[in-house]
Protein 1
Amino acid sequence: MPYTTVTSEHIQQFSDIVGSDNILQGEGHCWPYGYDNSRRQNTPQLVLFPRHAEHIQKIVSLCYQYKIPLTARGRGTGTTGATVPIYGGIILSSERMVEIIKIDPANRLMVVQPGVTNQQVQDAAAQYGFFWGPDPTSAAFCSVGGNLAYNSAGPRAVKYGTTRDNVLGLSVVSGQGELLKCGVSTTKGVVGYDLTRLIIGSEGTLGVITEAILKLTPLPETKRTMQAIYSDMGSAAAAVSRIMAQPMTPCALEFIDHKAIEMVREYSDAQLPEQAGALLMIEADGPEQGINAAIEAIQEAASGPGLVAFTAAESKEQVAALWATRKALSPSLRKVAPKKINEDVVVPVSHMAELITGLQQLAQKHDIIIVNFGHAGNGNIHVNLLVNPDDPDEMTRAHACLDEVFSLVLALDGTISGEHGVGMEKQAFVGREINPATLIIMKQIKQVFDPYNILNPDKMFPLTHSTNSSPEPENNNADI
């Protein structure tokens, strides 16, 4: 179905809805809203800044009436091109929907608009002694709406779950402009289908979120930091399995591999033993009274073949010293190559060592530097291919390598994305993970929510044909 180009008449109608001070038009003004952190870019014809659910409902209704493509956007921190408006049309930015509607500590929930940042949620919840589970690294800037769209998580997911586990209900506008209410304000509720969990992670393809009921968790009394260094990745992976099998679940369990350690040692002042082949950063939180027992349990689980050193920090200075290695990693990567292809694959914890070994073999086969780190507690590995985007031969080898990386992950019963989403970057590989019958059902669900395919069209699913003749968005070869 061909889409309609936005006309001056349409612009006036949209302006009547949101007001002239909540609209951008003209290529120069709209250009910055046509890309995300994937660096893919396609300029929208119009950018709208709704402030209320009623604004969104009226905007989507008009887009449905005129068949104008609409892409919802948070703060643009996504890495997969999910908010790039492939067919131009309208960008609906939630950045001015920043109201914290209600904080209800008695029922451990908060109701917010989608433009509120993750950090604003954390700060507001902390005043009542609570926090919200998801903690992506971009928390200071990313929006709740974006967290919901991608099912973002972060290190704390190992104990507190992903966004899906920390949202009770949603208000959503469908592709026909209908306001949907899904979920509950209680921790139990089984009336009807669970549309809340369906919409979270759907990358704006099913509806535009107007409100979210967030589940809050009491702040722990204390937190302690530990570091375990191993001679090889196999020993570290075995330790992760032991740590996750004992009753005290860490609130963070991060790792970096041997290649990453080499780079940190070469390009920073961080001190590591010469025999270090893998490193785990472990954090435990909970009641002050039981924290020492928790540390002892984790240390016992971490001990075993291959352990080189185990350190538990006793002060803020020691905590900073332990994290120095991990914090030195990103600057070190930038010194090795101008760009990195960053994928967030997940495998069962028991297969982590096989994955890292396989990635090392692929690096040698394709002559590409691969550095791995990530959330070891749930097998979420950030695979970084370090490349020079100005070297066509290297980029060809890198993409061939990436193809085999995904094949390896799936062979190990993993998934090609843990929290970055699919967007445009991983569309071609989705059919390897999801079988044809399941994809058909998913596309039928999309059709029910969005009959004219106006909501973030041609995202997530493998493309068999183009909906419109719009050009492929530019890719400036940044991190993906």
Protein 2
Amino acid sequence: MYEEIANEKLLDLSGKTAIVTGGAMGIGLSIVKRLAWAGANVLIADMDEEAAKKGEAELSGQGLKVGSIKTDVSSATDVDNMVETAVKKFGGLDIIVNNAGIYPQISLERMTASDFDKVIAVNLKGVFLCTEAASKKMVDQGRGGKIINVTSVDAIHPSMVGLAHYDASKHGVWGFTKNAALELAEHQIWVNAIAPGGIATPGTNKPAPAGVDMEKIMAAFMQKIPMHRMGNPDEIGKAALFLASDLSSYMTGAQIVVDGGVLLS
């Protein structure tokens, strides 16, 4: 039966517990902040333990309920420990944002099988492991949940030379999102995705690999964005808050594109 809920209540995550993988910086940290500001308990899971602890300290200092844990999402042991830590620390699990990802630029000519396997292990297998562990806990709790996978516009349209393994992983995450949404719907667990376009993060400022003219590539990319700017991490954080909240109560198996209009070109 339809129930009218006040606007402020729709975005209230008080009493909910969330995990954000790759949550120590950039898009991940912005998602952590949005969920914590909405009242959720948030566990920052990241390979960079020092950065994760720094994020925890910053937000805990604001009176927010935030924890951190070093996690390799490609390791089933690490992922199981991550979920159990969230449950022990905060009493349950309601939301997981699968944001962790890597994107080393390597041309197909130079790419090795191990290069390909590493990206797939983190970007795709990691989403599977985290979804599997989190959904089992959510099913056991019997109160539903939200699973949010960060894909990319590269899950819809190929990106650039040097990211064949990345594009393959993100197409895979989008397919996995839709299938998991079908399977988990009967448990009131909604599975959706966010597809960011060009977002200005610490990762986008890394030195370019040999033979890659990033200045030229970025100039060409900017020409394709109707908004004529890169996005900022908080613009993905706000989309994650939407999907984590009751504002998205009738959505599962969907992908929100947040790209400044780049796919229009």
Protein 3
Amino acid sequence: MNATALIAEDEPLLAASLQAELRGLWPELTVVATAPNGVAAVALALEHRPDVVFLDVRMPGQTGIEAARELAEEWPEGQPLPLVVFVTAYDEYALRAFDLAAVDYVLKPVRADRLALTCTRLREGLAKRRSGASDTLDQLRQLLGGVAPAAATRLTVIQASAGNAIHMVRVEDVIYFEAADKYVRLVTAEREHLIRTSLRELLPQLDTQRFWQVHRGTVVRADAIATATRDDSGKLTLSLRGHTDKLPVSRLYSHLFKGM
């Protein structure tokens, strides 16, 4: 079966070794690009649209899991997502999640017999995808849910600095959180605040039943959502109670909005 692949690996020798092993096990597979980190992997994948991506779990700047999430959100509508294989040297918790999500993985150092099994699974997955029987998006949803950070103490108040003042913002008053570079923007009905933390660090401290992630960089309070409107292309946009902002919903999270 002819197919294309992208390899994301921050160690050039390991990337070259994996490419050589794949060449021997699957001669019809063409590696169209290699990336040294997750950010480059996303950009190159969107450019080349490979059938398969091999993502190192631990990469500088952006992890393989974060890259998979961004790919799911940014991939062109109507185009099948690539099949994802994670490459990792450790992280047993993640491996259990990969098993549950039916997303394949290989361990470093990569063994030829294990990679051969991966190639077989990929061929089967591509055959299913071409017949319309595979749903990579559902697999990624399961995976990203399975490797979510462990729950931390729930926040009830957030201390937001502004000049010489510290504003005590009740979490229940926040309409939505939005990633802003190295900060998170808190939006309430009255005003906005910036806190020096990342959305990834903040998420485990929020009640996921009450606060829904609807995009890679956006988390909204569920009871602040007034309507979810789908346009002709299938994209969802949220209207809010108590605020005029409109929030886009990425397709990775569109399954949250289904009429009863």
Protein 4
Amino acid sequence: MMMRARIVGTGSTTPKRILTNKELETIVDTSDEWITRRTGIKERRISSNEQREDTSEMATGASLRALDMAGLLPEALDMIIVGTVTPDRQFPSVACLVQKELNASRAVAFDVSAGCSGFLYALSVADNAIATGCCKNVLAVGAERLSSVANWEDRTTCVLLGDGAGAVVLSPSTDADGILSTHLGSDGTLWDLLYSSDGSSKVPEILDTVEEKPFHLKMEGNRLFKKAVSCLAEIAASALNHHGLSCEDVRLMVPHQANLRIIQAVAERLHIPMERVYTNIQKYGNTSSASIPIALDEANREGLLKPGDYVLLVTFGAGLTWGAAVVKWSI
């Protein structure tokens, strides 16, 4: 029978520090009303060096929770893949640091860089590794520290970004459940809609524990919005059609949490009511690669999913990159 990967555990972690829209009013020329209306975000989590909340440590915390749910010890892992654009350092990879902390000595470990699509790219690699038989148990993680690349003088971008990590453990299954397929896309000709630029801005005093990297995020919001909606809707519809599924079959859509208006526009195009779309952007903002696994873990722990439910994952990020996955839930 065909082997496929199934999710057997989920986990997530976010920093302790909450930065509200009201606090952002003291940093840049903005308002709680403007941020909420334009993005749906009310607050976000900001990591701190003092709290040991760098990317690898958050990734490790999320991984431990996922392994605990899966009932697996770290030494059972054959592969660790981390999607991130904000690693602790250029090298070694976050995945290798997670391997060290978990003492997962048997696992091959590496990162993937696909902007906000990093987790779905990692999930696709994990799925293929299990389907081909080269791995049995794989840990796929999305972890980001976007506060370290925020331009705190740019009100159009700094209000969006937050930190956190999410993880899933995947194991083989010959049943009809699991990851039915993953679908990926990219277009490097549009790289300049969302990219990192040399230089950094002054970190405001109330965020003096934020790590500052020597580059910051730049974005062309209007064009990116339109491209995101069209790509997300198209690849989601294609993924469902691949299995002869309709939007009515989807129990829950878990999208990348970039902007509530993007999520609503995609749901409308797919004819999926918002009550079947999971959103937590109001609490965490855009956590890039971490957003889908954090949302998936919360939806799972809130009891919103049961075995046999069809789950649609969709994402869009820098590159440009985008992707979708159809999952028949198995926990």
